[in-house]
Write a structure and sequence with these properties.
The chain has five helices and no strands. The chain is mainly α. GO terms for molecular function: sodium:proton antiporter activity.
């Protein structure tokens, strides 16, 4: 059925949908690569939540364009999918980050912990250093 739909698409819609789907796939790949390569939990958490959310948004946008033009009608479930992704990914990332800070998971040696830095700065001010 999809092959019949793609035959009916105007060229501009085909190119635009392909662009957004490829762009979304690129962002999702970069986010997945960051998950595999980055050194500690907090940096690994950052890459997939940001890039994969944008990547899936691009794929959903490409799907909206493709199916809206091919079927001649807009479907609300694409917007619901996008809203679900845009709401759940940041919330779950925030909860995971808070749990990691609470558990004081080991961090990469070049990561600055601003909680302890501000505490040390306050101590230096009190001691006159």
């Amino acid at each position: 059925m999809i092959s019949n739909l793609s035959m009916q698409l105007p060229q501009w819609a085909d190119w635009l949908a392909s662009f957004f789907i490829c762009l979304g796939a690129l962002f999702a790949f970069i986010g997945s690569l960051g998950l595999a390569i980055l050194p500690d939990f907090l940096t690994r958490l950052h890459a997939p939540t940001k890039n994969t959310t944008v990547g899936l948004g691009g794929v959903v946008l490409g799907s909206i364009i493709f199916f809206s033009v091919a079927e001649g009608a807009f479907r609300i479930h694409f917007i619901l999918i996008a809203l679900f992704l845009l709401l759940t990914a940041p919330i779950s990332a925030h909860l995971l980050a808070k749990a990691a800070l609470h558990l004081d998971l080991p961090r990469y040696k070049k990561t600055t912990d601003y909680r302890t830095q501000s505490y040390n700065d306050e101590l230096d001010k009190k001691n006159g250093a």
